[in-house]
Each structure stands twice: as structure tokens, then as C-alpha cells.
Design a protein that fits this description.
Blueprint lengths: L2 H13 L12 E2 L2 H11 L6 E5 L5 H9 L2 E6 L5 H7 L6 E5 L7 H4 L6 E5 L5 H9 L7 E7 H7 L8 H7 L2 E9 L4 E2 L6 E8 L7 H14 L7 H9 L3 H10 L13 H14 L3
Amino acid sequence: MNQPLQGPITAILKNHGLRPDKSLGQNFLTDSNILKKIIRIAGVTDQDNVLEIGAGLGHLTAQLAQTAKDVVAVELDERFIPVLEENLAEFENVKIIQGDILSFKTSDLVQEGDYLVVANIPYYITSRIIRNLLESERKPNRIVLTIQYEVGQRLCAKTGKMSLLSLSVLMYGEPSLETRIPSGAFFPAPKVDSAVVLVNLYPEPLLDGKEREKFFEIIRAGFLHKRKTLRNTLSKGLAWSPGEVENLLVSVDIDPQRRAETLSMDEWLELTRNYDKIHPS
């Protein structure tokens, strides 16, 4: 599907004396049909400000620039900045920034108005980027990420297969796995397929600051030893007595013998809200 596009990509790299850096997770998605599909999934319009993470050679950036009001494209690898400037010279609505996305505040990158995040991100920092976006002072309205397919499945898992990642995202928004992208659509091709994941963020997180901290404390404890019962793993993770943990679980009608992955988001929220009744701060 993407074979005809590999010539131009290798030519661009060769002309600039560049090679993809495996340590930075550089796999370039250049299939125009898939790029357009990602923009449709994100619902980008000419009224939107878009933050792109990992602009690479600018293939997604160019598609975004044709659709969005303004695009801020962040690229870590300084070698690619001249390529981006050359490939995107015709677009006056694109701002290219060199640097590590994790070192920026989103409010410094997109200074006015609401914004979306649309990005093909390196697999190895997926969780850190997601956490950074969800916990930022100025959160995006929507996040659309191309990530490793199995990570996308975990992020969008339903009750019975929940994980720390899926619960963390559900605190801030509603995730959905929108499409699968075969590894051959990238250059160089990674070893695994990718997924496009959409997260529509709530106007506010489900819990406020203090309760949200307790929520994350509880779920981290719950998944500390996810094969153990909640009675045992919460006792160890929270440094509570088994009796205190059992009282908490029973107070919200949760069987202490259940395991963390079987609980729904609502059950974790109920545990959080009843935390202080059993173990006051």
C-alpha cells in the first residue's frame, strides 16, 4: 500500500544525509490516505489550533496545515528541522519548534484558544506523553495518537481487562480505538502494527485534586501485584491492615477476592470516595 511512497522518503533522507534513529523511535507514516483518515478521526477544521508531536519529515504536518487554522509542530531531532522548514515553506500557518515535548508546557506552545493534539509518537514514550497531556494546565479538547496497537488496546480496554493506563485516561476523557495501521504503512516498517486512538477529554476530570490523588494512589496499589486479590495487593500497596482493606471493599459491595483488572471505573471511583471513611487522612 505504501510502497510507491518509499522512494521519495528515502530520497529526502539521502539528500539531507539522514537516517532514521531507532533510539528515537523514528518510523515515518507517509501513506496519504491514512494521514487523511487520521485528520478525519481528529475532526480537524479550519477553526482549530493543532499541536503535533514528533513532526518528523512533515508528512502529517502538511496535511494538517491544509485543514487546520494553525499548526504547532514540535520535533526533538534537530537534524530534521531544515527538512521541515524546506518541506513546509509554503504554509504560513505552521510554526516549527525544536525540542523535547516533555520539557514544554502546552500553554507555552499553544498560547491562545482551544487546541487539539494530533501525533504519530514514538512507542517508547507513549505513556509519558499521554500523562503529560492529560495533566497539563491547559488540556487539549481532543487527543489523537498513532501508537503501538497493543498499547492502544490496553488504553481503550473495557471492564474485565482494565489497566493503570486505561483507568488513568478514563479519569480525564473517553478513549476509543479508531483504526489499525499495518506496519508496512511506515518507513522504516516497525515490527508491530499501530493503532489510531482518539481521546475526547471531559471539561473537567472526574475527581478534583485531592480525591484524584487518592484515586491514583489506590489504583497504583491495586495493580502492584495484579494477579493477587484486591484484599492482599491493596493491603500491601496502601500499607493498610487486611481488615481495613476488606472493610473498604465491602463498604462498596466489592468482593475482596476479586482482582484489580475486573473492577469498573465506577467501582474505583466509589473506592476513592469511601477511602477516608475507613482510613481518615
